[in-house]
Write a structure and sequence with these properties.
Helix content of chain B: under 10%
Strand content of chain B: over 45%
Structural class of chain A: mainly beta
Distance between the termini of chain B: 39 Å
Largest sheet of chain B: 7 strands, mixed
Mean pLDDT of chain A: 94
Helix content of chain A: under 10%
Order of helices and strands of chain B: EEEEEEEEEEE
Number of strands of chain A: 11
Shape of chain B: globular
Mean pLDDT of chain B: 92
Number of strands of chain B: 11
Radius of gyration of chain A: 13 Å
Largest sheet of chain A: 6 strands, mixed
Radius of gyration of chain B: 13 Å
Oligomer: heterodimer
Low-confidence stretches of chain B: none
Distance between the termini of chain A: 40 Å
Largest interface: A-B, 25 and 23 residues
């Protein structure tokens, strides 16, 4: 059973702090990794993707990938109350161009 | 620019009634199209995907079906709803040659089956 695991949270951080969101996956053959943000009652939106080991930065967001440990993380620097949302990790299914497995998401709360 | 529209936004249906959710994409051609379902507090579950008109792949055996009568139109249907069909249904698209993970989602349809 292919799985993507996330802590459901909520993860509570003060405004201005770094929020660290983590995700582990079970299939070593996965090559593509995605972070989606979902506000309550809304649809998900893609915020980051990463394909290679290491870090990838985009503004206040940094995605980190460690394939040996099967671990993906998302760091949000200078967290803002508007970052409060559920963050979904998604991983591709090897040998499939069309399929992703989503984690159940981590709820982030940024306290003013 | 590309847009995706999905309707209806919310609906409450009795058990055993039919269902039809519709999704259209504008501003692109030959998109890959997807139907996902999200149960409360759960991750997204892929229900169907389509790489072209009339080409539907089903991921989960259930009482739902999908159709793609036109290039940018994707429809999710059921003849008889079950209580377990309640959830948040999301249509999504990707560029044909892009990774399946770069999904663009519609606004979603919240279905409650009573």
């Amino acid at each position: 059973q292919k799985e993507v695991e996330q802590n459901s949270g909520p993860l509570s951080v003060p405004e201005g702090a770094i929020a660290s969101l983590n995700c582990t996956y079970s299939d070593r053959g996965s090559q593509s990794f995605f972070w989606y943000r979902q506000y309550s009652g809304k649809s998900p939106e893609l915020i980051m993707f990463i394909y290679s080991n290491g870090d990838k930065e985009d503004g206040r967001f940094t995605a980190q990938l460690n394939k040996a440990s099967q671990y993906v993380s998302l760091l949000i620097r200078d967290s803002q109350p508007s970052d409060s949302a559920t963050y979904l990790c998604a991983v591709n299914i090897p040998n499939s161009s069309y399929k992703l497995i989503f984690g159940s998401g981590t709820r982030l709360l940024v306290r003013p | 620019s590309q847009t995706i529209h999905q309707w209806p936004a919310t609906l409450v249906q009795p058990v055993g009634s039919p269902l039809s959710l519709e999704c259209t994409v504008e501003g692109t051609s030959n998109p890959n199209l997807y139907w996902y379902r999200q149960a409360a507090g759960r991750g997204l579950q892929l229900l169907f995907y389509s790489v072209g008109i009339g080409q539907i792949s089903s991921e989960v055996p259930q009482n739902l079906s999908a159709s793609r009568p036109q290039d940018r139109q994707f429809i999710l249907s059921s003849k008889k709803l079950l209580l377990s069909d309640s959830g948040f249904y999301l249509c999504a698209w990707t560029f044909r040659r892009r990774d399946a993970g770069e999904l663009f989602f519609g606004e979603g349809s919240r279905l409650t089956v009573l």
